[in-house]
TrEMBL record, chains A, B, C, D, E, F:
This is Mn-containing catalase. Belongs to the manganese catalase family. Ca(2+) binds at residues 56, 60, 203. Its cofactor is Ca(2+); Mn(2+). It comes from the Bacteria. Binds 1 Ca(2+) ion per subunit. Binds 2 manganese ions per subunit. Keywords: Calcium, Manganese, Metal-binding. One of its GO terms (molecular function) is metal ion binding. Mn(2+) binds at residues 35, 65, 68, 137, 170. The keyword Manganese applies.
């Protein structure tokens, strides 16, 4: 069951409306590495998880991502300002807010592409799902880094900073979970078959020095974390 | 902020696995009238609502729809059963569970079309948003009626019954909200312009007896509710 | 059978080309509340309608929406002007007209998202279909209100005025149809089940005063219309 | 302006309901080579055409394709039968009719993928648009050939026969139009540049005997048609 | 098997970064008439072709289109420049490069709509497939003509010139292939049925002078090519 | 530049046609974890990579994934058999092959959803891109495991075995690459900020034992690989 608390996870403010930035920030509302995608991915994956600790971890983070989505939507809403722009000259990507949603936040990426569940990765295999999540968190962090550079509003920067660091925390947690379950599921018997140890040099001229002589399912080792 | 309670809003059970029905039920997970769509629609609309009572109503129902989504996903997960079908002869619509998600619930409609935010209607105009919600709840109820007829599993029927009645409750609440705000926003000055009172008879031969002599913004009158 | 008359339903003119506004207006050509969506929705719904008067109504309005689509497309075409902009600096949303369609109108929303039938709601249940149409017409009116504010071209304003009022007329007609068929289909036995009369207060702190003690299927009562 | 005549372009009957075939036939309702796509393509292209004869041709055929769409939808509706299947074991592809549309025709392809305007090709260049239409008509004919083979219902076969031959007629007309306008627009100065006369043999071993020594914009020559 | 050569098919340079033009050029990377679409269409079609010469032709051109895709992506990458724009005021369509891809080329059209396989036409019928390809090449040429007019960068113009002429060469080759196979598959028995020789005048008033008295499957006759 | 060799990377055979399995296998042709997605992802990412060794690795693997796509398409084509099924009773998911593509392979997932570039993850940040690829390879392996279980055809099993092991090899290589570049880009300064070391316990009751006291950017350590 989901319950809503009218307090945001972390307070959201903006210095002033900034409709074009609102659009860019929408990338994290309804885009491929956005908060909705993250919430739905971890939520969907959680159903087939047997380990109660990991299942709880997925549900904790899914709930937090929903709460992040609410923060981002709140910021988009504030940045959109109070009134439809009557000049008829919208900045890039900000059209729908003026012709469709009445300045309400919209579940699209920064270019207006509607959110789609094709962004959500679920396999029912725990190693694959955790690796999908580590990658998703890393991409989310990168998008927040890009967004951070393009805004001077100190309140918005503060919110992005918070969210960026939270994605990093989730990432660390998923990496810990990966260590815990390693050599399970699709990570079993890694590199046993000969075909798994070949290198095909198909782009010429090639400079590759990687070798595959002794491959095994590697893990996320983190000295600091595993002490 | 969203918080998750590991207890479902209402207990979900199934008599036995039924993979094909799982697929059909998925219509209410990731389909156009499903629970995710409802939750995201009311959530997105709530940002521009000023009336605190109506804003609270939208947030209450959005949270409940998220909780419904969890119930439906739980049922789909149970109906999918324990093991990938090894016969290679999947019933209609049940392919992704066997080749992609490892039997985990998937955010698609009953035919495998991924959820898309194009299902979500937000206008920032309160009458339009409430009418969108009344229509959405009515359609959701109809889909549950169709789903109810096609399953004998008494536990699944019970869950559908519960969800169907909850959509009806939401519908009544949205109709009450519509009465409260009527003649606001896009419902103002209804039928004032002459063009709003014309009938174009473009499909021939026509039998239409509707007339538009005295149109005004109508409301949802419910004698029992308004006493 | 559909027949085409080279005369538009209402004459369309523009004061001068305005490529960016053309893009914004495209929202009503291929967007979620646009004319194509409306035409296809009523057309698709009409097949399962038994009441000849209501069936005729749906077909009349579907045909008119096709004619509206032609008017909007004509305006977009005129607003796009005569020549590809050679500056390589397109205003927001106007890229496809310059790189793809050679300034012809394109079936997308204002941001370039291609029309999709996911916008079209059909259930085969008459109350649900009519409510979907009432909501669709209300949203279409709101979009025209937003578009009206963002253009000074008096001819374009006149066209939008006409279309806006026509959506209002359709809305009134669908509300009349809803009254005619009420307590049928999915509106039967409203509020009979106890679960349909509960309120779940899931967003805290809540201020909701809505009550569900005596719910029944409400109708659109319009004193002026029902005399 | 579009007007609707309640008579179909050609009468549609079915020997008996056949829900799975209904689904397959839906390919021509909302699929990539279906009637809706054709109608919208020719309609959209017509706005930039200056030659009145060719513009009229495009509008004539667009209107006929809308009328075909109505015929196909009527057949799908009849083939879907009278009642929701209560067995919960839908044949491939027939799920949405039972859980969503209440057996009404739905604007998808045969697999349930919703119609999208990405199927529609518009360039504003007459040679390119006509060639797009010739190709579209040829593909539509092929789909009808496939559909014809997979049904024994004599009435459905008769309808498919009619539609297949109409696509052939449209195809011939578009080829005539191509002859009329040839060496215009994108067909001008064909093969003038040296790069337009090279052959890159990139798939080895190759057996290609095509040569590009003297390329010019070719036309559709039809001795019988040009006499 | 596909092999990659680190040399481009033709060298790509740009005079200077031009992020907005990068976006417009992306139309030919991931748009409906772009290089990826062309490559995948000819590749997919090639599997059912029996004539070894034509099969080889399709595979040669598919490989070349992949190599074109690489050239276009290289140009987009260079035009995007070296650094994320920190002004937060992206020109139309250039948002994703700044918030998502870190300036890497992205598989969308010029408006940010992700590439979709709905652009790809495959029928398994050789005349239909070849006509689809002729039309696709003609549209690709038109898009390059539009793109050519909107850029002054001489290196980019040179690349577009090359690609435009190559599409023309492919077009000529597909037209030659069409001549070779004519009156096969869906081109057999053209115009035999009476319904294939009727003209429905559905757009009034009409001026059409096309006639269908003696239709037969026409071919691409090119005097210069067939000598 | 891409060149095509008519020899497959590895020979493909099937014991007998199996149209339904063809459909399921299509998941790896045009699905979210399929070969086309992998090829396009690594290809797109390669443009912003500066390290020549890693750039070469990405291009080698992208080329191999294209060659895998060709193998999968070849198998789908063989499994589809020689003739359209005339019974009009297609097994789940196999409709398009019979009504649209004439049994040619089609770029969709197992349920007929067309390939979309929304599957492709590109960020321009090397750690994020490599982690995306590790996750993608892991998911691809899982899908092949599922597919392997559902077919008895020994030749198809052999092909799947080969492809599964190749994905494992790519995975190992990407993990090696991740080790090589670690603490770069988005992996710098990991866990420095306090917000990156908090755990929000939002799903109750919770059992989580994960701690975040000393988080640092972890790496893939593989004792066997790093000796």
């Amino acid at each position: 069951m989901f319950k809503h608390d009218k307090n945001l996870l972390e307070m959201v403010r903006v210095e002033r409306p900034n409709p074009q930035y609102a659009t860019m920030l929408q990338e994290q509302l309804g885009g491929p590495n956005g908060e909705l995608k993250a919430a739905l991915q971890y939520f969907s994956q959680s159903f087939r998880i047997k380990d109660p600790e990991i299942k709880d971890l997925f549900q904790d983070i899914a709930s937090e991502e929903l709460s992040h989505m609410e923060m981002v939507a709140t910021a988009v809403n504030m940045l959109n300002g109070h009134d439809i722009d009557v000049t008829g000259t919208q900045p890039a990507g900000n059209i729908e807010a003026n012709v469709l949603t009445g300045l309400a936040p919209y579940l699209t990426n920064g270019s207006g592409v509607p959110f789609t569940a094709t962004y959500v990765n679920v396999t029912g295999d725990l190693p694959a799902d955790i690796l999908s999540n580590i990658a998703a968190e890393q991409r989310a962090k990168v998008v927040y880094e890009y967004l951070h550079r393009q805004i001077n509003d100190k309140h918005v920067r503060q919110m992005i900073d918070f969210l960026l660091n939270r994605e990093e925390a989730h990432n660390t947690l998923f990496r810990q979970a990966f260590q815990k379950i390693q050599a399970n599921g699709s990570d079993r018997d890694w590199g046993v078959d000969e075909d798994a140890r070949l290198y095909f040099d198909l782009s010429t001229p090639g400079v590759n020095h990687f070798n595959l002589n002794n491959p095994q399912a590697p893990s996320f080792q983190n000295p600091n974390l595993t002490q």
